[in-house]
Amino acid sequence: SLPEFKEADIIHLHWINQGMLSLKNIRKILQSGKPVVWTMHDIWPATAICHLTLECRNFETKCQQCRLLPGGGSINDLAARIWKKKQQMLEDKRITFVTCSEWLGQEARKSALLKGQQVVTVPNPIDTHIYRPTDKKTARQAVGLPVDGRIILFVSQRVTNPNKGMQYLVDACRLLANDQTDKLQDISVAVLG
């Protein structure tokens, strides 16, 4: 459960990258003495430099010798230096990290960087007055999708980002086309991104 605080006393961080806040800025926030809740929308707060771990498990012990850096990194590569800065920034600080999924929460809890920090999962809320079950045919017509048949939906902020899995969708569609030729006229693919 989350600690009890008055809303005005809490500093709430979300996705702070792309020049929004530097580690130096975050350190200043942490030094303010106010309770900090940091909602994680990716794994970056629990790693040195990665927003996606891409099957790397270094963050469980210490980020260094990053395979994604030129030459496969080194003992004192960018990942190692940022890891050390984050470690110093978090030292003796209490932050409540909130993840939007159980999976991300489990990953964050494995991070050596976040050892001793509270990690809780609070799924993103959905406004059920707007997003609620409705008649399928009406909903499909409203967005221009076929009224009958099955629809395979793929959604990503940027479908061209290889980490989002578009290639898996393409491969799966090829397999489906080869294995289900008699059912293809009843299947549509919708891509949103």
Spans of 5+ residues with little confidence (pLDDT < 50)? none
Net shape: globular
Radius of gyration: 22 Å
Counted by DSSP, the helix tally is: 5
Q: Tell me the helix content.
A: 25-40%
Strand neighbour order, sheet with most strands: 1-2-3-4
How widely separated are the two ends?
34 Å
Beta-strand percent range? 15-25%
Structural class: alpha/beta
Mean pLDDT across every amino acid position: 91
The helix-strand sequence is: EHEHEHEHEHE
Strand segment tally: 6
Main sheet specs: 4 strands, parallel
Short summary of the structure?
The protein has 193 residues and is α/β, with parallel strands linked by helices. The protein has helices spanning 23-31, 78-90, 102-110, 136-142, 166-179; strands at residues 11-13, 36-40, 95-99, 118-121, 150-155, 187-192.
